[in-house]
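Researcher: Structure prediction, please.
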Amino acid sequence: MKDSKILLLLSILILITFLIDNSKNKLDTGDIAFTSYNSKNNDSFSIVLLKDIAPNTTIFFTDDEWNGNRFGTSENNLAWNSGTTMLPAFTEINFTNIKYKPNSNYGFTIGNLNLSQEGDAIFAYIGESFKQPLKFLSAISNDPNQYGTLINTNLEEGRSAITLPMNTYSAILKEKIKSSKEEIIEQLNDSNNYNFQYRTVSFASKSF
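Model: Predicted structure follows.
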C-alpha cells in the first residue's frame, strides 16, 4: 500500500512538471515538423524543431481523429516534456517504442501511441492537457481521411500537415535535414525525398 501511494505521488509530480510552464509556450503552427513515421512493430516517429524552444516545453501528440471541434476518445495520447535546457532550432527528436514504453533522445514522455498499419495520423499540439489543444503545431498521416478533418486546426496539407502515400508504414528521409525552415518544409513535403515501405494490400476475389 505504501509503495502504491509513493508511485501515485511520483506520477502526480511528473504530470505537474509537464504542465507547470505550459502556458508560457511560445510555439506556433509550423514551429515543429514530423521527419519520420513508422507504424510497424513497436512504432516510432521523429520531429524537428523549427525554432528554439524553452526548457520544460510540453508538446502533446494523439493518433485520434479531429472532427473540427474536438478529438475522438478511442485512441491514444503521448506527452513530451523537452527537459531542463533550451533546445535549439533544427534539433531532431526521436521517439521510439511508442506502442509500449516510449523513449525520446531529449526530455521525457508520458503515455503511448499505437499506430495502425491500415492508416493513421498523428497530431502535435500544445494545450492544458491531453485532447485539449490550444494550438496545433503539425500533423502527419499515411491516409488523408485519418486526419478526420483539418478544419479549425490552422494546419495546411502540403506544408504543416504531411500526407504520405497510401499504405505507407515506414517513411525515412534519404538525406539529412536541410538547414533552413523553408527548405525543411519543402524537403518534408516532397515524396521523392523518402525511402518508403508499404503495407501489402490483398484484394479478395469476387464472383460475378
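Model: The first helix runs from residue 2 to 19.
Researcher: Thanks, that helps.
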